[in-house]
Amino acid sequence: MTPDQQVATAPEPTAATAPRPTPAHRRATPADDLTVIVPAYDEAESIADTVRSILGQSTPPARVVVVDDFSTDGTGDLARAAGAQVLRPDANTGSKAGAQNVALALVETRYVMAIDADTTLAPDAVELLMAPLAADESVVAACGFVVPRHVRSTWERGRYVEYLLSFTFYKPTQDHFGAPLISSGCFSAYRTDALRAAGGWSERTRAEDMDLTWTFHQAGQRVRFVPEAVCYPIEPHDLAFMRTQLKRWSHGFVQNVALHWQGVVRLPFLGTAVAVAMVDAVVASLVYLVVLPLLAVLVTPWVLLAYVVDVPAVLVPVLLAARRRGEVGRALLSIPAFLVLRIVNGVAMLEALVTEVLLRRPLQVYEKGH
Questions:
Q1: Are 252 and 364 in contact (CB under 8 A)?
Q2: What contacts 16, CB < 8 A, 6 or more positions away?
Q3: Which InterPro entries does the record associate with it (predicted)?
Q4: Burial, 41: exposed, middle or buried (Cβ in 10 Å; 0-12, 13-18, 19+)?
Q5: How far apart are CA 165 and CA 60, in angstroms?
Q6: Gyration radius of the chain over CA positions
């Protein structure tokens, strides 16, 4: 450990770094036994907002630990100034999972939460996300609703619609059947003992949140989705960052299917959901990128209408979610960007399938996607 890390692991008691006693006038909450871990590499532009967002919660956690993963831009100093405890490894760990595990080894609270360094929270997000963990001992993880913080560029708009669709339709359906496909890495809470029993955040795939979630499901442990607990990450604003993020996500999905498929197929709903997602990844990508363009050239350009044939089905859950947020206009203006994004999604997924399955060249380097 560096001198900075040694100081961080045994800090002088302060309001920000030491567990706070519960005031006599306030009832104890699960957050009083919660450590929040924020992995961060060169996040100077966002880390202070993230830390202040966590400390300003309706029920703030006992401790906020930022793992400054050998940043070069002063991320650690800014996090400390904002009120967080800071750990700095001797060298970059190579992945978000690696950085989170540095802090997990030092956690003493019953619960632990992972929040990305570019993510801010609604004022009551921590309180709401902790509720299912406090209410049911069988629940080992919970994830919240994700909305892009900025919705300006084509790529941010596409992701905005994608998230509204996913977190308004797919995620609640998965939660109803007791099997959210992913406890999102940008904002999730866990029972510390269950997380440690699962080996912490695995570094064997590029999608550690999916890997951990499927590990919990196969162990018979419950994961919940809490739509009322809202977080706001910064999403890729240009094509270069979006391609980097999608590459990691696509390869991570393929890697997790290869790793977990034997255990997943024994779980009725999860096995079906993963199978449908895999078939959709292959078939939809081939149709969008190969079949439709060929038919347009060889038969008739009218077949290109297939690119938008499902737009009404997308609009219904998206506009319902947007209406609740008072953002119907924003959602309507963002639909074209979503159509562009899913084509780029298809390219990323086909590349991952070819590289991982056919060429046997797994993605091993973790690259940031924003």
A1: no
A2: 55, 64, 83, 84, 85
A3: Glyco_trans_2-like (IPR001173), Nucleotide-diphossugar_trans (IPR029044)
A4: buried
A5: 30
A6: 21
Cβ–Cβ under 8 Å, residues 236 and 155: yes
Which stretches does DSSP call E strand in 192-303? 222-233
Say whether 139 sits in a helix, a strand or coil. Answer: strand
Coil, helix or strand at residue 344: helix
The tens digit of pLDDT for each residue in 71-103 reads 999 999 999 999 999 999 999 999 999 999 999
Per the structure block, which two tokens stand in for 282? 């292959």
Cα-based torsion angle of the residue sequence 12, 56, 71, 211 in order, rounded to the nearest 10 degrees = 110
pLDDT given at position 368:
72
Q: Identify any residues that bridge with 82 across adjacent strands, giving them in sequence order.
A: none
177, 157, 149, 65: which is closest to 112 by C-alpha? 65
Closest residue by Cα to residue 263 from 196, 193, 211 = 211
Query: Residues of the chain whose pLDDT is less than 70?
Result: 1-27, 369-370
Q: What domains are defined for the chain?
A: 3-237 (3.90.550.10), 263-358 (no CATH)
What DSSP letter does each residue of 238-254 carry, written as one string?
A: SHHHHHHHHHHHHHHHH
Dihedral over alpha carbons 302, 303, 305, 311 (to 10 degrees): 160
**How far is Cα 321 from Cα 180, in angstroms, rounded to an integer?**
19
